[in-house]
Amino acid sequence: MLPGAERRHRPPRRADGDALIRSYALPSQASLNVEDGTLLAFTPPGKVDEETLKDLPDPFRITAKDKVYDLEVSLIGEVRVAGGG
User: Fold this and answer.
1) How many structural domains does the chain have?
2) Range of the domain at 36
3) pTM for the predicted model, two decimal places
4) What is the pLDDT of residues 25-51, one digit of tens each?
């Protein structure tokens, strides 16, 4: 391995055996307008499964420090703030 290079590792596995791509713990003062758990599933080519995408609330929101932000999720799982604040 080259100096400074990081070792690649397998993503953590969920209890059902599926790979967990990425998860984020929200600060206690922030909240989403969805239940806890898996929000999106990905298909093998790396796109969001459209069935899970359409299950997100409309609008999909995060509240932090008494401000509400609308979120958009792309088909490849990118999330961006679409409005609010």
Assistant:
1) 1
2) 30-84
3) 0.66
4) 778 889 999 988 788 888 888 888 888
